[in-house]
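subagent[fold] <- orchestrator: predict structure for attached chain, return tokens only, no commentary.
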Amino acid sequence: MAAAKGDGAVGELELQAAIGFNGHVPCGLICHPDREHILYPLGCTVVIQHLDTKKQSFLHGHANNVSCVVVSRDGMYVASGQVTCIGFKAFFSCRVMVWDVSKREAVCGSPASPRSAGNANVVMCSSCRDEMFVTAGNFTIRVWELDAATKKIHPSECYAGQLRRITVCVQMTDDDDDDDFYLGTTSGDVLKVNTSSKVVTACGPQKKKFSMGVTALLLPKTGGLIVGTGEGTVALCTGSDFQVKK
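subagent[fold] -> orchestrator:
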């Protein structure tokens, strides 16, 4: 948006406030670890709002609508991805940005997917390493390492063999090692990925997949993996083949 200046030049409008929340981005409304702010995507912008004063600040840098957003465990960083711009190559338009919350500015940005892949649908920060996060989406799974000193993020593409999946949810193991993360797909199965080797180590169930896709994942303290599906089923899965226990 732009506004005309008195000398005939055209200047950019500065966003002063945002009203409303459409909820189109899954898990897009996030409470900051300081318990004083909330964050949510709005178009091409990520909004940070103080809960008491309602004061807002904005993270600008995406060229298209934000498709996923997450906050690091310590609240220092925000990572966000965007959808692919129609008419542009995914290499250029589908980007992930990392933001410094205290400074309200971008630390760095990089293409979220390789040329052959599509949108990054989900992003998840490590539960024990604030400099690591993962993105996944249309036929792409990546592990990212942030180097704050050089202001760069380094992606590693995960090897999935012949598997081609569209990911809609992600869950990271909550332990000191953070060795694995799990992905729910529109195909109705779950992928397990090792963060060190960057390889898909398990996929299931093999015979009877979940109807209407896997839309939610939870790792309970008691073990196993809780799976939520598009048809409303909630199941407890166990083993490397993710067989339904109940």
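orchestrator: received. Logging for downstream: Residues 24 and 67 are 9 Å apart (CA to CA). The longest helix spans residues 90-93.
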